Amino acid sequence: MQFGKRSIMCGEVTSSMAGSTVTVNGWVNRRRDHGNVIFVDVRDRSGMVQAVLSPELNNNAYAAAQNLHNEEVVSLTGTVVKRSASGQNPQWATGDIEIQGHALQILNPVKALPFQLEDERVDEELRLKYRYLDLRRPRMFGLLKLRSDIEFAMREFFHREGFLDVATPILTKNTPEGAREFVSPSRIQKGKFYALPQSPQLYKQLLMASGFDRYYQIAHCFRDEDLRADRQPEFIQLDLEMSFIDELDIQTTVERLIQFALKKVFNRDLKVPFERMTYDHAFGHYGSDKPDVRFELKIHDVSLAFADTSVNFLKAALVHGKIGALCVSAHHFSRSELDDLVEKMKQQGAQGLLWITCAADGSLESPIAKFLPKDFVERITPLIAGFKQGDTLLIMAGDFQDTWTMLGRLRLMLGKKLGLIDENIQRYLWVTDFPMFEYDKETNTYAAMHHPFTMPQPEWEGKPYGEIKARAYDIVLNGIELGGGSIRIFNSAEQTKVFQAIGLTQESAEKRFGFLLEAQKLGFPPHGGLAIGIDRFIMLLAKCDSIRDVMAFPKTAKGSDPLMQAPVELEDKDLAEYGLMRKKSLT
Q1: C-beta of residue 195 within 8 angstroms of C-beta of residue 172
Q2: Mind listing the pLDDT tens digit for each residue in 537-551?
Q3: What per-residue string of b and e applies to 382-415 under the rule 16 or more CB within 10 Å gives b?
Q4: What is the pTM of this model?
Protein backbone atom coordinates (compact mmCIF):
# COMPACT_ATOMS: atom_id res chain seq x y z
CA MET A 1 0.00 0.00 0.00
CA GLN A 2 1.24 3.45 -0.89
CA PHE A 3 0.60 5.99 1.84
CA GLY A 4 1.67 9.47 2.79
CA LYS A 5 4.85 9.03 4.80
CA ARG A 6 5.05 11.26 7.82
CA SER A 7 7.00 14.46 7.64
CA ILE A 8 6.87 15.02 11.38
CA MET A 9 5.89 13.23 14.59
CA CYS A 10 2.50 14.14 16.07
CA GLY A 11 3.87 15.67 19.25
CA GLU A 12 6.44 17.78 17.42
CA VAL A 13 4.09 20.05 15.42
CA THR A 14 4.49 23.62 16.70
CA SER A 15 2.91 27.02 16.10
CA SER A 16 6.05 28.12 14.24
CA MET A 17 4.91 25.78 11.43
CA ALA A 18 1.61 27.63 10.93
CA GLY A 19 0.75 27.77 7.24
CA SER A 20 2.95 24.79 6.30
CA THR A 21 1.76 21.37 5.14
CA VAL A 22 2.61 18.34 7.27
CA THR A 23 1.88 14.63 7.19
CA VAL A 24 1.47 12.66 10.41
CA ASN A 25 1.10 8.89 10.80
CA GLY A 26 -0.33 7.21 13.87
CA TRP A 27 -3.37 5.84 15.65
CA VAL A 28 -6.78 7.42 16.09
CA ASN A 29 -6.97 8.25 19.76
CA ARG A 30 -10.40 9.86 19.63
CA ARG A 31 -12.96 11.03 17.08
CA ARG A 32 -15.60 13.72 17.72
CA ASP A 33 -18.33 14.46 15.17
CA HIS A 34 -19.73 18.03 15.36
CA GLY A 35 -21.93 17.88 12.31
CA ASN A 36 -20.05 19.33 9.34
CA VAL A 37 -16.81 19.28 11.32
CA ILE A 38 -15.04 16.18 12.61
CA PHE A 39 -12.19 16.43 15.10
CA VAL A 40 -9.67 13.58 15.15
CA ASP A 41 -6.88 13.20 17.71
CA VAL A 42 -3.98 11.36 16.10
CA ARG A 43 -1.40 9.76 18.42
CA ASP A 44 2.09 8.36 18.07
CA ARG A 45 4.91 7.80 20.58
CA SER A 46 5.72 11.53 20.69
CA GLY A 47 2.25 12.66 21.73
CA MET A 48 -1.00 13.81 20.11
CA VAL A 49 -2.18 16.37 17.66
CA GLN A 50 -5.70 17.45 16.79
CA ALA A 51 -6.88 17.37 13.17
CA VAL A 52 -9.96 19.10 11.79
CA LEU A 53 -11.81 17.64 8.78
CA SER A 54 -14.76 19.18 6.97
CA PRO A 55 -16.32 19.19 3.48
CA GLU A 56 -14.98 22.71 2.96
CA LEU A 57 -11.38 21.52 3.37
CA ASN A 58 -11.64 18.24 1.46
CA ASN A 59 -14.76 16.20 0.92
CA ASN A 60 -12.90 12.89 0.47
CA ALA A 61 -10.97 13.32 3.69
CA TYR A 62 -14.15 14.29 5.49
CA ALA A 63 -15.94 11.20 4.15
CA ALA A 64 -13.10 8.95 5.31
CA ALA A 65 -13.23 10.53 8.80
CA GLN A 66 -16.90 9.61 9.15
CA ASN A 67 -15.94 5.93 9.33
CA LEU A 68 -13.01 6.23 11.72
CA HIS A 69 -12.73 4.11 14.86
CA ASN A 70 -10.37 4.44 17.82
CA GLU A 71 -7.00 2.71 17.29
CA GLU A 72 -7.23 2.61 13.50
CA VAL A 73 -3.91 3.36 11.82
CA VAL A 74 -4.05 6.48 9.65
CA SER A 75 -2.00 8.86 7.57
CA LEU A 76 -3.18 12.46 7.65
CA THR A 77 -1.93 15.41 5.61
CA GLY A 78 -2.99 18.99 6.20
CA THR A 79 -2.11 22.58 6.97
CA VAL A 80 -0.96 23.67 10.43
CA VAL A 81 -3.05 26.52 11.86
CA LYS A 82 -3.04 28.28 15.21
CA ARG A 83 -6.01 27.70 17.49
CA SER A 84 -7.93 30.57 19.00
CA ALA A 85 -7.06 31.39 22.60
CA SER A 86 -10.32 29.87 23.84
CA GLY A 87 -9.78 26.65 21.88
CA GLN A 88 -6.29 25.81 23.12
CA ASN A 89 -5.52 22.69 25.16
CA PRO A 90 -2.75 23.47 27.70
CA GLN A 91 -2.36 19.76 28.57
CA TRP A 92 -0.88 18.97 25.16
CA ALA A 93 2.42 20.16 23.78
CA THR A 94 0.52 20.74 20.51
CA GLY A 95 -2.45 22.34 22.25
CA ASP A 96 -2.04 25.72 20.57
CA ILE A 97 -2.33 24.37 16.99
CA GLU A 98 -4.36 21.96 14.88
CA ILE A 99 -4.07 20.45 11.43
CA GLN A 100 -6.71 21.25 8.83
CA GLY A 101 -6.92 17.92 7.02
CA HIS A 102 -6.70 17.71 3.21
CA ALA A 103 -6.03 13.98 2.90
CA LEU A 104 -6.84 11.04 5.19
CA GLN A 105 -5.93 7.40 4.59
CA ILE A 106 -7.02 4.52 6.79
CA LEU A 107 -3.93 2.33 6.61
CA ASN A 108 -5.35 -0.46 8.74
CA PRO A 109 -8.90 -0.76 10.08
CA VAL A 110 -9.60 -2.36 13.47
CA LYS A 111 -12.15 -4.79 14.78
CA ALA A 112 -13.74 -4.37 18.22
CA LEU A 113 -11.04 -3.96 20.85
CA PRO A 114 -10.86 -6.50 23.72
CA PHE A 115 -10.68 -3.55 26.12
CA GLN A 116 -10.60 0.21 25.95
CA LEU A 117 -7.16 1.69 26.40
CA GLU A 118 -8.36 4.37 28.77
CA ASP A 119 -9.92 1.78 31.13
CA GLU A 120 -7.49 1.36 34.04
CA ARG A 121 -9.52 -1.47 35.63
CA VAL A 122 -8.70 -4.08 32.99
CA ASP A 123 -7.74 -7.50 34.36
CA GLU A 124 -3.96 -7.92 34.24
CA GLU A 125 -4.07 -11.27 32.42
CA LEU A 126 -6.15 -9.68 29.65
CA ARG A 127 -3.69 -6.79 29.48
CA LEU A 128 -0.81 -9.25 29.09
CA LYS A 129 -2.66 -11.28 26.46
CA TYR A 130 -2.97 -8.12 24.36
CA ARG A 131 0.22 -6.52 25.64
CA TYR A 132 0.81 -4.66 22.37
CA LEU A 133 -2.46 -2.80 23.04
CA ASP A 134 -1.59 -2.24 26.69
CA LEU A 135 1.76 -0.76 25.69
CA ARG A 136 0.01 1.87 23.54
CA ARG A 137 -1.12 3.59 26.73
CA PRO A 138 0.96 6.75 27.29
CA ARG A 139 1.67 5.63 30.86
CA MET A 140 3.12 2.31 29.73
CA PHE A 141 5.18 3.97 27.01
CA GLY A 142 6.48 6.41 29.61
CA LEU A 143 7.57 3.60 31.91
CA LEU A 144 9.51 1.81 29.19
CA LYS A 145 11.03 5.09 28.02
CA LEU A 146 12.16 5.76 31.58
CA ARG A 147 13.75 2.33 31.62
CA SER A 148 15.50 2.99 28.32
CA ASP A 149 16.78 6.35 29.56
CA ILE A 150 18.12 4.89 32.82
CA GLU A 151 19.86 2.03 31.03
CA PHE A 152 21.40 4.43 28.50
CA ALA A 153 22.67 6.65 31.32
CA MET A 154 24.20 3.61 33.00
CA ARG A 155 25.97 2.62 29.79
CA GLU A 156 27.25 6.18 29.39
CA PHE A 157 28.61 6.16 32.95
CA PHE A 158 30.43 2.86 32.54
CA HIS A 159 31.87 3.86 29.18
CA ARG A 160 33.29 7.02 30.75
CA GLU A 161 34.72 4.97 33.63
CA GLY A 162 36.60 2.57 31.35
CA PHE A 163 34.38 -0.48 31.81
CA LEU A 164 33.94 -2.95 28.94
CA ASP A 165 30.48 -4.19 28.00
CA VAL A 166 30.96 -7.93 27.47
CA ALA A 167 28.14 -10.34 26.58
CA THR A 168 28.28 -13.73 28.33
CA PRO A 169 26.60 -17.00 27.25
CA ILE A 170 22.95 -17.82 27.84
CA LEU A 171 23.48 -21.57 27.34
CA THR A 172 25.82 -22.62 30.11
CA LYS A 173 26.51 -25.28 32.76
CA ASN A 174 24.30 -26.29 35.66
CA THR A 175 26.01 -25.04 38.83
CA PRO A 176 24.57 -24.87 42.37
CA GLU A 177 24.41 -21.15 43.19
CA GLY A 178 21.28 -21.07 45.35
CA ALA A 179 18.22 -20.66 43.13
CA ARG A 180 16.62 -23.34 40.96
CA GLU A 181 17.71 -23.18 37.33
CA PHE A 182 15.96 -23.59 34.00
CA VAL A 183 17.52 -26.28 31.82
CA SER A 184 17.52 -26.76 28.06
CA PRO A 185 18.13 -30.12 26.31
CA SER A 186 20.73 -30.43 23.55
CA ARG A 187 19.67 -32.04 20.27
CA ILE A 188 23.26 -32.51 19.14
CA GLN A 189 24.40 -34.12 22.39
CA LYS A 190 21.34 -36.13 23.36
CA GLY A 191 20.83 -36.72 27.04
CA LYS A 192 22.80 -33.62 27.99
CA PHE A 193 21.43 -30.29 29.12
CA TYR A 194 22.43 -26.66 29.19
CA ALA A 195 21.36 -24.42 32.06
CA LEU A 196 20.13 -20.88 31.62
CA PRO A 197 22.21 -18.57 33.83
CA GLN A 198 20.91 -17.37 37.18
CA SER A 199 23.47 -14.62 36.65
CA PRO A 200 26.76 -14.20 34.75
CA GLN A 201 28.56 -14.79 38.07
CA LEU A 202 31.23 -17.27 37.02
CA TYR A 203 31.79 -15.75 33.59
CA LYS A 204 32.42 -12.30 35.02
CA GLN A 205 34.91 -13.75 37.50
CA LEU A 206 36.68 -15.48 34.63
CA LEU A 207 36.80 -12.15 32.78
CA MET A 208 38.78 -10.82 35.74
CA ALA A 209 41.15 -13.77 35.33
CA SER A 210 41.42 -12.67 31.68
CA GLY A 211 42.72 -9.27 32.74
CA PHE A 212 39.65 -7.25 31.66
CA ASP A 213 39.80 -5.41 35.01
CA ARG A 214 36.46 -3.59 34.62
CA TYR A 215 33.42 -5.35 33.18
CA TYR A 216 29.72 -4.55 33.05
CA GLN A 217 26.69 -5.97 31.29
CA ILE A 218 22.95 -5.43 31.30
CA ALA A 219 22.32 -9.15 31.40
CA HIS A 220 19.39 -11.52 30.99
CA CYS A 221 19.06 -13.91 33.95
CA PHE A 222 16.73 -16.83 34.64
CA ARG A 223 15.49 -18.44 37.86
CA ASP A 224 12.80 -21.11 38.15
CA GLU A 225 11.40 -19.83 41.45
CA ASP A 226 8.00 -19.03 42.90
CA LEU A 227 6.95 -15.62 41.63
CA ARG A 228 5.77 -12.45 43.36
CA ALA A 229 5.22 -8.79 42.55
CA ASP A 230 8.96 -8.03 42.34
CA ARG A 231 10.16 -11.34 40.86
CA GLN A 232 9.98 -12.83 37.35
CA PRO A 233 11.43 -16.06 35.90
CA GLU A 234 13.32 -13.97 33.34
CA PHE A 235 14.76 -10.68 34.53
CA ILE A 236 17.42 -8.12 33.69
CA GLN A 237 20.26 -7.16 35.98
CA LEU A 238 23.08 -4.69 35.81
CA ASP A 239 26.20 -6.78 36.37
CA LEU A 240 29.63 -5.40 37.16
CA GLU A 241 33.00 -6.72 38.29
CA MET A 242 36.32 -5.02 39.10
CA SER A 243 39.84 -6.23 39.85
CA PHE A 244 42.30 -5.09 42.53
CA ILE A 245 39.63 -3.41 44.65
CA ASP A 246 37.91 -3.65 48.03
CA GLU A 247 34.30 -3.26 49.19
CA LEU A 248 34.44 0.53 49.32
CA ASP A 249 35.62 0.76 45.71
CA ILE A 250 32.58 -1.22 44.53
CA GLN A 251 30.15 0.68 46.73
CA THR A 252 31.52 4.09 45.74
CA THR A 253 31.32 3.21 42.05
CA VAL A 254 27.69 2.13 42.41
CA GLU A 255 26.82 5.30 44.34
CA ARG A 256 28.32 7.46 41.62
CA LEU A 257 26.51 5.40 38.96
CA ILE A 258 23.10 5.96 40.56
CA GLN A 259 23.93 9.61 41.22
CA PHE A 260 24.88 10.08 37.55
CA ALA A 261 21.78 8.28 36.21
CA LEU A 262 19.31 10.20 38.38
CA LYS A 263 20.93 13.52 37.49
CA LYS A 264 20.90 12.64 33.78
CA VAL A 265 17.29 11.40 33.65
CA PHE A 266 15.50 13.40 36.38
CA ASN A 267 17.95 16.28 36.93
CA ARG A 268 17.83 15.15 40.55
CA ASP A 269 20.79 15.59 42.90
CA LEU A 270 21.45 12.52 45.03
CA LYS A 271 23.49 12.80 48.20
CA VAL A 272 26.34 10.33 48.57
CA PRO A 273 27.75 8.36 50.29
CA PHE A 274 24.74 6.23 51.21
CA GLU A 275 24.07 5.21 54.78
CA ARG A 276 25.81 1.99 55.88
CA MET A 277 24.56 -0.56 58.38
CA THR A 278 25.83 -4.00 59.39
CA TYR A 279 23.63 -7.05 58.92
CA ASP A 280 23.53 -7.64 62.69
CA HIS A 281 22.34 -4.08 63.32
CA ALA A 282 19.77 -4.26 60.53
CA PHE A 283 18.28 -7.55 61.64
CA GLY A 284 18.52 -6.73 65.35
CA HIS A 285 16.68 -3.40 65.01
CA TYR A 286 14.45 -3.95 61.98
CA GLY A 287 13.97 -7.73 61.68
CA SER A 288 15.18 -7.65 58.09
CA ASP A 289 18.38 -7.65 56.06
CA LYS A 290 16.75 -5.03 53.83
CA PRO A 291 15.24 -2.57 56.30
CA ASP A 292 13.02 0.31 55.31
CA VAL A 293 14.70 3.18 57.17
CA ARG A 294 12.18 5.82 56.13
CA PHE A 295 10.57 5.46 59.57
CA GLU A 296 12.01 4.90 63.03
CA LEU A 297 9.90 2.15 64.61
CA LYS A 298 12.54 -0.31 65.85
CA ILE A 299 12.59 -3.72 67.52
CA HIS A 300 13.74 -3.89 71.15
CA ASP A 301 15.06 -6.94 72.97
CA VAL A 302 12.96 -7.01 76.17
CA SER A 303 13.98 -10.47 77.37
CA LEU A 304 15.42 -9.07 80.64
CA ALA A 305 12.07 -7.57 81.61
CA PHE A 306 10.58 -11.08 81.63
CA ALA A 307 13.54 -12.93 83.14
CA ASP A 308 11.47 -14.21 86.11
CA THR A 309 8.07 -14.34 84.38
CA SER A 310 5.49 -16.91 85.40
CA VAL A 311 3.80 -16.83 81.98
CA ASN A 312 4.54 -20.27 80.57
CA PHE A 313 4.96 -19.42 76.86
CA LEU A 314 7.28 -16.52 77.68
CA LYS A 315 9.28 -18.67 80.09
CA ALA A 316 9.60 -21.41 77.45
CA ALA A 317 10.69 -18.91 74.81
CA LEU A 318 13.57 -17.70 76.98
CA VAL A 319 15.10 -21.18 77.18
CA HIS A 320 16.49 -21.05 73.63
CA GLY A 321 15.11 -17.78 72.28
CA LYS A 322 14.33 -14.16 72.99
CA ILE A 323 11.44 -11.78 73.58
CA GLY A 324 11.19 -8.77 71.26
CA ALA A 325 8.89 -5.76 71.22
CA LEU A 326 7.80 -2.84 69.09
CA CYS A 327 6.82 0.27 71.05
CA VAL A 328 4.09 2.29 69.34
CA SER A 329 3.58 5.86 70.52
CA ALA A 330 1.02 8.52 69.53
CA HIS A 331 -1.62 5.97 68.57
CA HIS A 332 -4.39 4.52 70.71
CA PHE A 333 -5.23 1.00 69.57
CA SER A 334 -8.82 -0.12 69.95
CA ARG A 335 -9.36 -3.69 71.11
CA SER A 336 -10.61 -4.63 67.64
CA GLU A 337 -7.44 -3.18 66.08
CA LEU A 338 -5.29 -5.25 68.41
CA ASP A 339 -7.29 -8.40 67.74
CA ASP A 340 -6.93 -7.75 64.01
CA LEU A 341 -3.14 -7.40 64.32
CA VAL A 342 -2.98 -10.67 66.29
CA GLU A 343 -4.97 -12.49 63.60
CA LYS A 344 -2.95 -11.02 60.73
CA MET A 345 0.34 -12.05 62.30
CA LYS A 346 -0.95 -15.59 62.84
CA GLN A 347 -1.82 -15.66 59.13
CA GLN A 348 1.79 -14.61 58.46
CA GLY A 349 2.98 -17.66 60.40
CA ALA A 350 3.57 -16.17 63.86
CA GLN A 351 2.79 -18.27 66.94
CA GLY A 352 1.04 -15.29 68.47
CA LEU A 353 1.23 -11.60 69.37
CA LEU A 354 1.03 -10.19 72.87
CA TRP A 355 0.15 -6.57 73.62
CA ILE A 356 0.66 -4.39 76.69
CA THR A 357 -0.67 -0.82 76.88
CA CYS A 358 0.40 1.72 79.49
CA ALA A 359 -2.80 3.67 80.23
CA ALA A 360 -2.97 7.38 81.00
CA ASP A 361 -3.05 6.65 84.75
CA GLY A 362 0.02 4.44 84.52
CA SER A 363 -1.85 1.17 84.85
CA LEU A 364 -1.10 -1.69 82.47
CA GLU A 365 -3.71 -3.22 80.17
CA SER A 366 -2.94 -6.61 78.64
CA PRO A 367 -4.28 -10.18 78.41
CA ILE A 368 -1.48 -11.03 80.91
CA ALA A 369 -1.81 -7.86 83.03
CA LYS A 370 -2.28 -9.80 86.29
CA PHE A 371 0.96 -11.72 85.68
CA LEU A 372 3.10 -8.63 85.12
CA PRO A 373 5.34 -7.52 88.01
CA LYS A 374 4.51 -4.26 89.75
CA ASP A 375 7.81 -2.75 88.64
CA PHE A 376 7.28 -3.71 84.98
CA VAL A 377 7.51 -0.09 83.75
CA GLU A 378 10.79 0.36 85.64
CA ARG A 379 12.10 -2.84 84.03
CA ILE A 380 11.09 -1.79 80.50
CA THR A 381 12.31 1.82 80.61
CA PRO A 382 16.06 0.99 80.39
CA LEU A 383 15.32 -1.37 77.49
CA ILE A 384 13.07 1.05 75.57
CA ALA A 385 14.21 4.63 76.08
CA GLY A 386 11.27 6.99 76.16
CA PHE A 387 8.60 4.43 77.07
CA LYS A 388 5.72 6.39 78.56
CA GLN A 389 2.03 6.49 79.33
CA GLY A 390 -0.11 5.94 76.26
CA ASP A 391 2.45 3.66 74.58
CA THR A 392 1.63 0.14 73.42
CA LEU A 393 4.10 -2.73 73.35
CA LEU A 394 3.57 -5.39 70.69
CA ILE A 395 5.50 -8.45 71.80
CA MET A 396 6.60 -11.74 70.24
CA ALA A 397 8.70 -14.52 71.74
CA GLY A 398 10.59 -17.55 70.49
CA ASP A 399 13.53 -18.48 68.27
CA PHE A 400 15.49 -15.29 67.59
CA GLN A 401 15.60 -15.61 63.79
CA ASP A 402 11.93 -16.49 63.42
CA THR A 403 10.66 -14.03 66.05
CA TRP A 404 12.62 -11.05 64.75
CA THR A 405 11.56 -11.85 61.17
CA MET A 406 7.90 -11.73 62.26
CA LEU A 407 8.47 -8.51 64.19
CA GLY A 408 10.05 -7.06 61.05
CA ARG A 409 6.90 -7.91 59.07
CA LEU A 410 4.73 -6.40 61.80
CA ARG A 411 6.88 -3.27 61.73
CA LEU A 412 6.24 -2.81 57.99
CA MET A 413 2.53 -3.48 58.47
CA LEU A 414 2.36 -0.79 61.17
CA GLY A 415 4.41 1.62 59.07
CA LYS A 416 1.72 1.51 56.38
CA LYS A 417 -1.27 1.30 58.73
CA LEU A 418 -0.18 4.24 60.89
CA GLY A 419 1.09 6.41 58.02
CA LEU A 420 4.66 6.43 59.29
CA ILE A 421 6.24 6.12 55.84
CA ASP A 422 6.95 9.19 53.73
CA GLU A 423 6.32 7.86 50.22
CA ASN A 424 7.94 10.93 48.66
CA ILE A 425 11.46 10.19 49.86
CA GLN A 426 14.01 7.63 48.75
CA ARG A 427 16.44 6.18 51.27
CA TYR A 428 19.38 4.21 49.90
CA LEU A 429 21.24 1.96 52.30
CA TRP A 430 24.22 -0.40 52.24
CA VAL A 431 23.87 -3.49 54.43
CA THR A 432 27.30 -5.00 55.10
CA ASP A 433 29.02 -7.83 56.97
CA PHE A 434 26.53 -10.55 56.14
CA PRO A 435 26.84 -14.03 57.65
CA MET A 436 28.93 -16.26 55.41
CA PHE A 437 26.67 -19.27 55.93
CA GLU A 438 23.02 -19.80 56.78
CA TYR A 439 21.68 -22.84 58.59
CA ASP A 440 18.97 -25.05 57.09
CA LYS A 441 16.91 -26.59 59.90
CA GLU A 442 15.33 -29.20 57.64
CA THR A 443 18.58 -30.65 56.28
CA ASN A 444 20.75 -29.77 59.31
CA THR A 445 23.36 -28.29 56.96
CA TYR A 446 24.91 -24.93 56.14
CA ALA A 447 24.70 -23.17 52.77
CA ALA A 448 26.35 -20.03 51.44
CA MET A 449 24.12 -17.04 52.23
CA HIS A 450 25.14 -15.16 49.06
CA HIS A 451 26.95 -17.70 46.90
CA PRO A 452 29.91 -20.03 47.48
CA PHE A 453 32.35 -17.72 45.64
CA THR A 454 32.05 -15.02 48.32
CA MET A 455 35.21 -14.43 50.34
CA PRO A 456 34.92 -14.91 54.11
CA GLN A 457 36.26 -12.20 56.36
CA PRO A 458 39.82 -12.78 57.64
CA GLU A 459 40.63 -15.49 60.19
CA TRP A 460 37.43 -17.40 59.56
CA GLU A 461 38.84 -20.90 59.74
CA GLY A 462 38.09 -22.72 62.96
CA LYS A 463 35.17 -20.49 63.92
CA PRO A 464 31.64 -21.94 64.28
CA TYR A 465 29.93 -21.58 60.90
CA GLY A 466 27.19 -19.40 62.39
CA GLU A 467 29.76 -16.80 63.52
CA ILE A 468 31.66 -16.42 60.23
CA LYS A 469 31.08 -13.14 58.40
CA ALA A 470 31.37 -12.63 54.64
CA ARG A 471 32.84 -9.76 52.66
CA ALA A 472 29.35 -9.26 51.23
CA TYR A 473 27.08 -6.25 50.88
CA ASP A 474 23.59 -5.46 49.62
CA ILE A 475 22.18 -2.19 48.35
CA VAL A 476 18.66 -1.42 49.57
CA LEU A 477 16.14 1.22 48.52
CA ASN A 478 13.08 1.90 50.68
CA GLY A 479 13.11 -1.58 52.18
CA ILE A 480 13.59 -3.44 48.90
CA GLU A 481 16.84 -5.12 47.94
CA LEU A 482 18.12 -3.59 44.72
CA GLY A 483 21.06 -5.93 44.47
CA GLY A 484 23.98 -7.49 46.18
CA GLY A 485 27.64 -8.22 45.75
CA SER A 486 30.80 -9.36 47.42
CA ILE A 487 34.53 -9.62 47.28
CA ARG A 488 35.23 -12.98 45.59
CA ILE A 489 37.53 -15.82 46.53
CA PHE A 490 40.48 -15.86 44.16
CA ASN A 491 42.61 -18.55 45.82
CA SER A 492 41.95 -22.18 44.90
CA ALA A 493 42.78 -23.56 48.36
CA GLU A 494 40.39 -21.17 50.11
CA GLN A 495 37.69 -21.84 47.52
CA THR A 496 38.02 -25.58 48.18
CA LYS A 497 37.62 -25.04 51.94
CA VAL A 498 34.41 -23.04 51.39
CA PHE A 499 33.06 -25.75 49.11
CA GLN A 500 33.78 -28.30 51.84
CA ALA A 501 31.98 -26.14 54.39
CA ILE A 502 28.75 -26.37 52.38
CA GLY A 503 29.08 -30.11 51.88
CA LEU A 504 30.76 -30.32 48.47
CA THR A 505 33.31 -33.10 48.34
CA GLN A 506 36.56 -32.62 46.44
CA GLU A 507 35.21 -34.87 43.68
CA SER A 508 31.92 -33.00 43.45
CA ALA A 509 33.66 -29.61 43.48
CA GLU A 510 35.98 -30.67 40.67
CA LYS A 511 33.07 -31.98 38.63
CA ARG A 512 31.00 -28.82 38.99
CA PHE A 513 33.62 -26.11 39.36
CA GLY A 514 36.84 -27.63 38.13
CA PHE A 515 37.27 -24.86 35.54
CA LEU A 516 37.12 -22.22 38.29
CA LEU A 517 39.52 -24.04 40.62
CA GLU A 518 41.94 -24.45 37.72
CA ALA A 519 41.67 -20.76 36.75
CA GLN A 520 42.43 -19.76 40.35
CA LYS A 521 45.79 -21.56 40.02
CA LEU A 522 46.72 -19.72 36.81
CA GLY A 523 46.98 -16.08 37.90
CA PHE A 524 43.64 -14.96 39.33
CA PRO A 525 43.59 -11.35 40.63
CA PRO A 526 41.72 -10.12 43.74
CA HIS A 527 38.29 -8.96 42.53
CA GLY A 528 34.73 -8.25 43.47
CA GLY A 529 31.48 -7.00 42.05
CA LEU A 530 27.78 -6.46 42.37
CA ALA A 531 24.52 -6.92 40.48
CA ILE A 532 21.46 -4.64 40.58
CA GLY A 533 18.00 -5.74 39.49
CA ILE A 534 17.10 -3.27 36.74
CA ASP A 535 13.41 -4.22 36.83
CA ARG A 536 13.13 -3.57 40.57
CA PHE A 537 15.10 -0.34 40.31
CA ILE A 538 12.84 1.08 37.59
CA MET A 539 9.76 -0.13 39.48
CA LEU A 540 10.85 1.86 42.53
CA LEU A 541 11.84 4.96 40.55
CA ALA A 542 8.45 4.92 38.80
CA LYS A 543 6.56 4.12 42.04
CA CYS A 544 4.91 1.06 40.51
CA ASP A 545 3.53 -1.84 42.53
CA SER A 546 4.87 -4.57 40.25
CA ILE A 547 7.92 -5.11 38.05
CA ARG A 548 5.53 -6.40 35.39
CA ASP A 549 4.60 -2.77 34.70
CA VAL A 550 8.17 -1.88 33.71
CA MET A 551 8.86 -4.95 31.55
CA ALA A 552 7.73 -5.02 27.92
CA PHE A 553 6.52 -8.63 27.86
CA PRO A 554 6.41 -10.10 31.37
CA LYS A 555 4.99 -13.39 32.61
CA THR A 556 1.98 -13.71 34.90
CA ALA A 557 2.27 -14.54 38.59
CA LYS A 558 2.05 -18.21 37.56
CA GLY A 559 4.92 -17.89 35.09
CA SER A 560 2.85 -18.06 31.91
CA ASP A 561 2.85 -15.78 28.88
CA PRO A 562 -0.78 -15.14 27.80
CA LEU A 563 0.39 -13.37 24.64
CA MET A 564 2.52 -16.19 23.24
CA GLN A 565 0.63 -18.84 25.23
CA ALA A 566 3.87 -20.17 26.68
CA PRO A 567 5.04 -22.52 28.08
CA VAL A 568 3.63 -25.28 25.88
CA GLU A 569 3.85 -29.04 25.78
CA LEU A 570 5.95 -30.54 23.00
CA GLU A 571 4.73 -33.40 20.89
CA ASP A 572 6.43 -36.81 21.23
CA LYS A 573 8.18 -36.45 17.87
CA ASP A 574 9.66 -33.12 18.96
CA LEU A 575 10.86 -34.60 22.26
CA ALA A 576 12.46 -37.50 20.40
CA GLU A 577 14.67 -35.00 18.53
CA TYR A 578 16.34 -34.31 21.88
CA GLY A 579 16.48 -37.93 23.00
CA LEU A 580 13.60 -37.35 25.44
CA MET A 581 10.31 -39.17 25.97
CA ARG A 582 7.21 -38.24 27.91
CA LYS A 583 6.26 -39.93 31.15
CA LYS A 584 2.76 -41.38 31.25
CA SER A 585 1.79 -38.99 34.01
CA LEU A 586 3.21 -35.67 35.18
CA THR A 587 2.84 -34.63 38.80
Answers
A1: yes
A2: 999 999 998 999 999
A3: eebeebeeebbbbbbbbebeebbbbbbbbbbebb
A4: 0.92
